[in-house]
Write a structure and sequence with these properties.
Blueprint (H helix, E strand, L loop, with lengths): L7 H12 L4 E5 L6 H13 L12 E4 L9 H11 L11 E5 L7 H12 L5 E7 L7 H5 L2 E4 L5 H9 L5 H11 L3 H8 L6 H14 L2 H11 L3 H21 L4 H20 L3 H9 L3
Parallel strand pairs: 1-4, 1-5, 2-3, 3-4
Helix pairs in contact: 3-4, 6-7, 7-8, 9-11, 10-13, 11-12, 12-13
Length: about 280
């Protein structure tokens, strides 16, 4: 876990969990916080498998949304099939399932997963990541330990990436967009064009600088991809917070953008009509 940049409080909470693990834990943090990397690191520790090899380990499974779509019940049934297989290792934690962005599971998928959470096979640990735990049904939330992933200090993030031989100017530019979120900072520095958050950065900049017509087109696009919509709103929030810290000349405008972005996310959670929810707040950015 030493290769990750983790807030000291989060590190303590993870150590506490690993010393007395339950069968399920939910890592909660905004997009770009590095939740998946942390989940993989926890799995590596629990399974006693090298971090570089754990993703190819036979008794680890990762379930992720595809192309921003919800995680279907078929994906959860695949987990059930995986969990039905015998595991030769008899250590206390011998099999791990990671569900990335678990809040994007359909209701049917969540109900199916709940059965596993209620009666998990011996030695099985399920790690969920979520950028919004309120999208998880109450019974799932009550059957897993919550671990809130705190954002590291900017100085800690900068020191971490400086140690990886990235140039200081490049790091500062990445931090100006990421707001210090380590996962997003890494994606920007590595120029990982396939990373969903880099796509969200492009959309966020377009939303903030485009005409009302172009914003309407983007709202229509985002309404069809809930994960991308959440990511874009998270990036906008980071940009607004950074701008509020740096400038007072247009503080009112950035505060309005920040408030609207939070309200848009809340509306997405409550309202099945994504386009209506996004249009109400994002067209006023």
């Amino acid at each position: 876990m030493n290769n990750l940049v983790i807030h000291p409080t989060t590190k303590l909470h993870v150590a506490g969990y690993l010393s007395s693990p339950s069968h399920a834990v939910t890592l909660v943090a905004p997009a770009g916080s590095g939740k998946l990397s942390l989940a993989i690191a926890i799995a590596s520790e629990m399974l006693a498998v090298d971090h570089d090899k754990v993703m190819n380990y036979a008794y680890l499974r990762l379930i992720s949304p595809e192309d921003g779509k919800a995680i279907s019940i078929d994906s959860i049934r695949a987990i059930e099939k995986f969990l039905s297989l015998k595991v030769p290792n008899t250590q206390s934690a011998n099999r791990v399932v990671i569900v990335e962005n678990a809040n994007l599971m359909t209701l049917e998928a969540q109900t199916a997963l709940l059965k596993t959470l209620e009666e998990p096979p011996s030695g099985t640990v399920i790690i969920l990541t979520a950028f919004n735990e309120q999208d998880l049904i109450d019974t799932i939330r009550s059957r897993s330990i919550k671990l809130y992933v705190a954002k590291p200090e900017i100085s800690q993030v900068k020191a971490h990436f400086s140690g990886l031989d990235f140039k200081s100017q490049a790091i500062d530019q990445a931090l100006s967009v990421s707001g210090g979120l380590p996962g997003l900072t890494a994606a920007i520095l590595q120029n990982n064009q396939d990373h969903p958050l880099l796509q969200a950065v492009v959309k966020a900049k377009s939303i903030l600088s485009g005409s009302r017509y172009s914003k309407m087109l983007l709202v229509d696009e985002l309404s069809k991809d809930k994960l991308l919509a959440f990511n874009v709103l998270s990036i906008i929030q980071q940009m607004a917070q950074i701008s509020l810290l740096r400038s007072t000349s247009n503080a009112g405008q950035w505060q309005n953008i920040l408030d609207n972005s939070y309200q848009a996310q809340a509306a997405l959670v409550k309202n099945a009509q994504s386009k209506l929810a996004l249009s109400k707040y994002m067209l006023d950015f």
